[in-house]
Each structure stands twice: as structure tokens, then as C-alpha cells.
Write a structure and sequence with these properties.
2 copies of one chain form a homodimer.
Chain A (H helix, E strand, L loop, with lengths): L1 H35 L2 H32 L3 H34 L10 H23 L5 H23 L7 H34 L5
Helix pairs in contact in A: 1-2, 1-3, 1-4, 2-3, 3-6, 4-5, 4-6, 5-6
Chain lengths: 214, 214
Amino acid sequence: MRDVFQTDLDALREQLAEMGVLAARAMRDATTAVLTSDGELAERVMAADAELDVARDRCDETVQRLLALQAPVAGDLRLVMTAVYCADKIERMGDLAAHVADTARIRHPECAVPAELTASFTELGTIAAGMADRLVELIGRPGHGGFAELDDTDRAVDSRHAAVMAAVTDPDWPHGIPSATSLALLARYYERFADQAVSVAKRLDFVVTGVIAA
Amino acid sequence: MRDVFQTDLDALREQLAEMGVLAARAMRDATTAVLTSDGELAERVMAADAELDVARDRCDETVQRLLALQAPVAGDLRLVMTAVYCADKIERMGDLAAHVADTARIRHPECAVPAELTASFTELGTIAAGMADRLVELIGRPGHGGFAELDDTDRAVDSRHAAVMAAVTDPDWPHGIPSATSLALLARYYERFADQAVSVAKRLDFVVTGVIAA
């Protein structure tokens, strides 16, 4: 019985890690699509989002089977409960990457990001996808401290988000209102992607410590 | 043992319903604050959001106790798992209401919503808060069909959201870019609030049917 349980727990970890890989890839590709106005790549990112939905459902099924058959306790129970939460957050990260890709698609063939904001969005994409990469590592080899680390990284995202908002609401913004509103939303997708990553890291710490950080 | 279990399950339902009440009130008050530029009310909504965070943590604790002590199966297990998911979504609804309130606060003493969009945002607030009210009823007396109903209501939110986006990206928009970007984000908070309500209703159906709607 115990061996089956351990196998299911390992499967759960692998499923979550695989979701993290998909989210990181989606964000990286979506950022490329939005920066280079690559409509085909944008479509591919949006289509691939269905994989994350399926992966989330598979995680939920594994969790239900584990709970129904094994009645885990303490640290194992925390891991199982955390998996439900994290799978949902990572699935949402995929949605947000798809929103980034959709912005590329909507504004195609025009480029959604004007030259003066290329650096900001390149950084947002690199940092956000890197946070998803880091989650994959944390899921595979959990240890306390992921939350503090990603919370710190999140500040770098917030500062770029603030810089974009300052640029698009500047009275001298030269690219018109549709561009400004689209970029405000675009920056928010990155900010929310990073927020989800932080909340996953917080829950992963909880698996180890049994305490949810404030 | 069974009685303790039923008491815990009832407590979980009550905790979730209470969260729904808080989310509905937050959205109603936040909408009033943003439409009347009531800075004090906005501050109160933002401060009250901490109550929802506490309520969510209490739900999680009840769930953990239930799982650790009672090993529920089938429908009961689905309810317990669903509670984790729903508590998180309703807590997020509170965050979004707080974002609406924050928009009122940031633009105070100016009114964030110009006269020509008052009707749209009044409707968004009424429909969104009504969706939270409906969740409270569905949590208290679950029956299959809540998802289809709220998914239908969500279309009314989406159409108002689209109308606001069309207005603020119109070349003749007279209120400037900061107002346009702020209103685009504001409309998105309502849209996301409604999305969370739909996903809660979907999971509540699942408690009854054992099947997650596509």
C-alpha cells in the first residue's frame, strides 16, 4: 500500500513539475510572439494552453485517488492539498501567457510593443518565465525558502510593471489610447503571472514547514 | 465520529458561504466607492479584505482537520476538495473588489468613472455582486445547474466589459490616457470577479455530479 502511495505522490510531483515547464515555455514563446509580432507563434501558444488544462485535471484526479485510497497524514497530506492549489495556479499562469500571446495576435501585423518599451517587456518575459523555471526546481526538490526568493524576484516584476504604467499614462505618450490600454493590460498579465508563481512558492514552503507565510 | 464529521462539513459550508457574503458586500461597496468617488468607503473595502484572507485560512484549516481525522470518501471528499478550490477563488474575488476600491482611492477626489460610463459600471457592479449572492445560495443548497446559470450571467458581464473597452479605445475618447487605462483595468477587475464566480459554480456542480463541466 505504502509503495503505491509513494508512486502516486511521485506522479503528483512530476505532473506539477511538467505543468511548470509548460507554463515557462508558454510565457517565453508568448513574449517572443508579442515582441516580434509573430502571429503564428501566438496562435501556437494559445492552442497549447489546452495541454495545461488537461494536466491540471490529471493532477486533480491523482489527488482524488490519493485521498480516497490512501488517507495521507501530516507532510504527505500537506503535499496533496498543496498540489490542488498549485495545479490551479500554474494552469492560470498558462492562461496569462495565452493572454500575452492573444495581445500579439490582436495587434498583428502591427507590433504590440513600441520600441521604447521593448527592453521592459523583454525583461518582464525573462523574469516571469524564469520564475516558472524556478518553480519546477522547487517542486522537484522542495526546501524552505522558495517563497522569500520568488517574492524578491517579484519586486523586479513590479518595478517593470510600474515603469510601463508610467510610460503609457504619460501625457506625451505618442502611440494613442488603444496602444496604451493594450500595454497596460499586457503589463498586468506579466504581473499576475509572477504573483501566481509567488503564491505557488509560498504553498511549496508550507509543504515543508506546515506554516503558510504571511 | 460521523457526527463530528457532519459538524465539520457543515462548518465548512458555512465558512464558504460567509466568504461569499463578504465578497458580495465588498464588490457592492467598492462599486459605490468608485461611482461616487467615496475615498473613505474605498479605504474601508480595502481594509475589510483582510477578513476574507483570514476566512480562507480558516477554511483550509477545517479541510486539513477533516482530511486528517475523517478520511471522507466520494461526495464528501469532493466537497472537501472543492472547498479548498472555492475558498481560494472567493478570496480572489475579494482581492478584485479591493482593486476596484483602490481605483476609487487612487483617482479620488476625481471620479474614476466619467458620466457616460456610469450606467455600464453600475450594471457591472450589480451583476458581479449578484453573482456572489447567488454563490452563497448555491453553497447553502447545492444542486446541479449553478454553472450553466452563472456562465449565462457572465455573458452579460462580458458584453459590458466589451462596451467599456470600445468606449475607452475610441479615437474620440475625451478623458485622456490615464483615465482610459484605469477604466480598462477597472472593467477587467469586474470581468475577472465574474470569472471566479463561474469557476466556483462549476466546482459546486462537481460536488453534486462528480463531473467537472468542460
